[in-house]
Amino acid sequence: SQTIHQWPATLVQPVGSPLSLECTVEGTSNPNLYWYRQAAGRGLQLLFYSVGIGQISSEVPQNLSASRPQDRQFILSSKKLLLSDSGFYLCAWSHKLGQGSNQPQHFGDGTRLSIL
Amino acid sequence: SQQGEEDPQALSIQEGENATMNCSYKTSINNLQWYRQNSGRGLVHLILIRSNEREKHSGRLRVTLDTSKKSSSLLITASRAADTASYFCATYNQGGKLIFGQGTELSVKP
User: Which of A92, B15, B55, B80 has CB 3.0 to 4.6 Å from A107, enough for a Cys bridge?
Assistant: First the structure.
């Protein structure tokens, strides 16, 4: 069966520090991968998605970036964190059939990021 | 942009009662999905209903879809304390992105 892992679960970082959040998927190949941010435990905002190694689409211009160095690895990064980067970050994957349509997404347990 | 909007924003019921949550969306869809999120955790996919379906069941969950009204409802029957969570509807937009609503926060009191 497929599993998705995100780490760390919680992170406290000072303003201006770098960030690296990692997400890996097991049990499937060539998945679509997604990074979301969720503020105040409510709606999700899509940040990045990837359909393959090295292929990243950005949905929201900001000081975050994403990379996909391996088929089942998705990394969210920042060179200098802002206070507004605080939030709950979720990684997800889906199968590719139908170009993502009709496919449910499967989520990791998230990283709670607090910027001080 | 296409987005599901859930109603109510919060719902508090007693164990054993039924819980009904509604979702409205703006444009035509291929399918609509419902997810659950326990506090501090990731989202879990519950059920997908296609645009040519009117009703779908999964255990204690019943989902209806009315494409003429661009709305869907999620019914949880005989609720349990463990059903306490936030529930989100989501639809794919024309760009292939899954767009989530703001969610309904369900509290089931024992």
Answer: A92
Report yes or no: A62 and A78 within 8 Å, Cβ to Cβ: no
CB contact under 8 A, B97 and A108: no
Write out pLDDT tens, residues B52-94: 999 999 999 999 999 999 999 999 999 999 999 999 999 988 7
For residue A5, the distance in angstroms to the closest alpha carbon of chain B comes to 11
C-alpha closest to that of B52 among B63, B73, B66: B66
* Cα–chain center distance at A39: 14
**A44 to chain B: nearest residue by CA?**
B100
Kindly write down the DSSP assignment for every residue of B80-106, as one continuous string. Answer: -GGG-EEEEEEEE-TTS-EEE---EEE
**Closest approach of chain A CAs to the CA of B86, in angstroms?**
8
CB B67 within 8 A of CB B59: no
Kindly give the pairing relationship between strand B31-37 and strand B85-92.
antiparallel
More confident residue, B45 or B5: B45
Distances, alpha carbon B6 to alpha carbons A8, A39, A52, A78, B47, in Å: 31, 17, 33, 33, 16
